[in-house]
Amino acid sequence: AGLRACGVQNVCRLLSRRAHGFYARDAGVAHRKNLGLLRKIMCQESTKFKNVWTTHSASPIAYERGRIYMDNYQCCITSIAQQPRLIYQKSKCAKSEKIEDALLLECPLGEMLPNPADYKASLIVLTVQNWLLRLSADSGEVLEQVYLAGSCCKFFRYLSWDTPQEVMIVKSAQNKLPAAARQAGIQQTVLFYLAVFQVLPLSFIGMLEINKKIFGNSVTDVAVSNGILIVMYSMGLVRLYNFKAILEQFMEQPFDLGQEFNWNGQAGVVGKYPFGLPCNIKITDTPPLLFEASSLENAFQIGGYPWHYIITPNKKKHKGVFHICSLKDNALAKNGVQDMKCCSLEPDWIYFHPDMSGRIIHVGPNLIKVLKLKEVKNHADQMEIAEDFTIVANRENCVNNSVTVTASGRVVKKRFPVLDDDPEQETFKIVDYEDELDLLSTVAVTQIGADGRAHLDFHCNEHGSLLKSIPLKESWDVTYSHEVYFDKDLVLHIEQKPNRRFSCYVYQMVCDTARDD
């Protein structure tokens, strides 16, 4: 009634005006306005990013939503304050308690939860001894614990989301028989185990096995995402199955955590040591196939609107060539073959834009192309790939002549052309998207001798125009592994050097640097 009183009758206009914050009583309007102000302040010329904290470690460093984790998640540091400060420090754990993987768990909006502590962020971790623990993000205290491995599996190693913040998958390492068993002719048919959990409150849905007899001998890996079971094969084949339908069809008996059970001759308590979890989902027949595609190195992505997928033809000579096809009928989109023809050590990469716009980002050494799907004129059933905008590396001072003349007049010919990702030329290394500020961020690096210099640039996500450039103070070695996180007013750079040496550099937004100087 309030909206109609404003004189707006068209539903599309109502939704558009609401998205832009015209109605002050709408949930999230103040938050959107604040983020809009933060974006404007951040992109001002006078705003700087200052390196406020640096640390080094002999163990991996991880970052999750304003928290820096060190010493195998035993140490937690907040990066939100002006100076990063310690949240908690736990005593050093034994090797048997080492954490293999972790996921940050946040309270879903609009959900009623049984315990007040569930409304606070927590960390779900998987230990080397197959314990699944839920830890308080503020203190590291163990809130819940589940023992995973009974007699069926002893090597759970990976955590992932099926539905983010709702359904979690715990995957085992690939089962491999000892050499002696293989020589004795013993066959291993079970390749992987998948345990499925609903989170907040944490509840057990079921556990299933991926068996050669059902899915074939050449299975190399499996994954679950958005209700789809993805099975990958050694010859580049990728097959998709309805995971929810598999759970419903092949569930033998549901179990709850803490429930006493007698299962296949074993009696115990679900999720308690030493019994763990029962394998209560038995796939006895090949599930209906939703879709399959063949792609080099199993590279396969789905996105866009209408639905499309991206593959690389399954031949080594096609590495770096990407085909964008309709999921409906496998038809190649017009201009759907994307090839930058890069001459580089590291290949270019492509993916669907994480902003849910349906666009595609294609990143090469010196060029970033943002592509969009649109209908072919006069052919509504056919789609074409069009260029939305491009971002080009700054190589104005780069001279790439195959023939040079020395001061003495001697003509020197280069036997090989300079690579597109030659370290002495500015090269794109990282491209990311900050969803709350709607900014596309890029890291470009130039290395001269042993000294490499990098800068983080913010681009308008709609048009690609450069809004801000931040030089990173530390040297950047292109042979090391790097991660850069841009989270609102924070920039964090994690570097992995040889011999497992890790460094973390934290930058904070500073508006009045003159006073600090």
Automatic annotation (TrEMBL):
Gene source species: Bombycilla garrulus (Bohemian waxwing)
Annotated InterPro entries: DCAF17
PANTHER family for the chain: DDB1- AND CUL4-ASSOCIATED FACTOR 17
Annotated transmembrane regions: 190-210, 222-241
Superkingdom of origin: Eukaryota
Gene Ontology biological-process annotations: protein ubiquitination
GO CC, alphabetical: Cul4-RING E3 ubiquitin ligase complex
Protein name per the record: DCA17 factor
Primary gene name: Dcaf17
